[in-house]
Amino acid sequence: MSRVANPVLPGCYPDPSVCRVGGDYYLVTSTFEYFPGLPVFHSTDLARWEHIGDVVTRADQLDYSRIASSGGLYAPTLRYHDGRYWVVCTLVDPADATRGGNFLMTATDPAGPWSDPVWLDADGIDPSIFFDDDGRVWMHGTRLAREPRWHDQTEVWVREFDPTTMALVGPETVVWNGAMLGVVWAEAPHLYKVDGRYYLLAAEGGTEFHHSVAVARADSVTGPYESNRCNPVLTHRHLGRDSDVVGAGHADLVQAADGSWWAVLLAMRPYGGYHYPLGRETFLVPVTWEDGWPVFAPGEGRVPAEVEVPFAAAAPAGDGGGVVRPEDPRWTSLRGPAAAFATARGDGWTLRPSVETLTDPGTPSFLGLRQQHRDLDLSASLRAPLAAGEEAGLAIRQSERDHVRLALATGPSGEAVVRAVHRRAGAETLLGEARPGAAVGSPLTLDVHARGVDYDLGVTTADGARTVVATADARTLDSVATGGFIGLWLGVYATTPDPASATVVEVDRVEYRPA
């Protein structure tokens, strides 16, 4: 038996959905505006997960260009049936309700390639799919109630799906408004059949401090559903904002090969006060059944710091830190493929500066990694022969309106100038400036040393002399301070005001090391 540390997927991996195929487990999470979209993970023990592919890998699969941060791909569900893997998900444009919607993609290999989307005639968000043992297939999801009795009341609907025509058929049934009177955002519904009964699992309270997991059951897939008197069956809201884990919810159940039951769910780890720069992460909890109901984290009633998994392998040695090479699947761009501006080269990249900047909801020249540790050192060694008005460097990114840039630019005499700029709610402030005494285009290393909420930003010349440029505060960048749904990304970028610019930025290597 191994003790497995939570979260099992640290960093911004929210809305997990899981399924088992024989002795293998597969998991997918939300990605919002980042590309590739919807990472697929594989595990043999629910504890250690390998990123094996992504659902959205082609620019022509989905168009989420110009969708602002924290829009994009929401809450996928992953299932396996009859030789195929199925993902249903929602594409959301917060500024245009007519764009996007619910869609389905399939694959014979979870690593991909995945099909083009089949758009579903269903409004709302958080779709899920259930394959009954009688051969019928049911879609379900959540939406704002059409006849609400209170603000942000939602309803869960169920409707049959024809897997041959790939279309919803028959009548729709509204089966759930939440376990409690006045509850908001009863969402993330999933259906299961256990011992002949149908179980509906849902999140409630909104995906923040008041988040929770509730369950109901019925003798028919279309209800009526009986609420568990123990609801919510899992929440941390009663523990207060000083709890080490908050916002537990959005769960999905899976039965292991040995017959045991487990749930994956999202939650956040605050630090520096009520802030969670790492975003919503994926956690694992054991589940048992009593009196025909699931019991989450039995005997504890909360997300544990460690989980005993009888069939888990021993944890590998090391922290996984080091050079992050171009083939590493953690690299992401914004709203489109990185091939538009980046070419892999050895341990690093050649970046072509883009006219689009980090303030634009497009596809700027940016390659980023999720921040997965509170304490870390990230560095980028680069050579950037920048023309006037161009910049390249490191970014700590929350959104177009909120980020920090450690920007290398050209001074009036051709010298390198490094500026730390904080963009906060759309307004920019200079945090600090350094002149490392090198000509522009000379090898320089830009770095971020994160220790809790303090980001120490520096530049190092070829002779090893490091200059501290400024310190940024994560508490001004996380979603508690800025809004939205995502954690922080760290990455390299390059911009130019000239569409005809011939500048290239050579990023020789990027290192990510937990401290």
Task: Outline the structure in words.
This protein has 515 residues and is an all-beta fold. It folds into 2 domains: 2-309, 5 Propeller (Tachylectin-2, Chain A); 322-514, Jelly Rolls (Sandwich). The protein is built from 1 helix and 39 strands. Strands 25, 27, 28, 30, 35, 36, 37 and 39 form an 8-stranded antiparallel β-sheet that branches. Strands 29-38-31-32-33-34 form a 6-stranded antiparallel β-sheet, with no helix packed on it. The longest helix has 4 residues, at 479-482. The protein is globular. The mean pLDDT is 97.
Map the helices and strands.
Elements: E1 2-5, E2 17-21, E3 24-28, E4 34-35, E5 37-43, E6 50-56, E7 72-81, E8 84-92, E9 100-107, E10 118-119, E11 125-131, E12 137-144, E13 154-162, E14 167-176, E15 187-194, E16 197-204, E17 212-218, E18 226-227, E19 234-235, E20 246-255, E21 261-268, E22 281-290, E23 293-296, E24 306-309, E25 322-323, E26 333-334, E27 342-345, E28 348-351, E29 366-370, E30 376-383, E31 391-397, E32 403-410, E33 416-424, E34 427-434, E35 444-451, E36 454-461, E37 466-473, H1 479-482, E38 489-495, E39 505-514
Antiparallel strand pairs: 1-24, 2-3, 3-5, 4-26, 5-6, 7-8, 8-9, 9-10, 11-12, 12-13, 13-14, 15-16, 16-17, 17-18, 17-19, 20-21, 21-22, 22-23, 25-39, 27-28, 28-39, 29-38, 30-35, 30-39, 31-32, 31-38, 32-33, 33-34, 35-36, 36-37
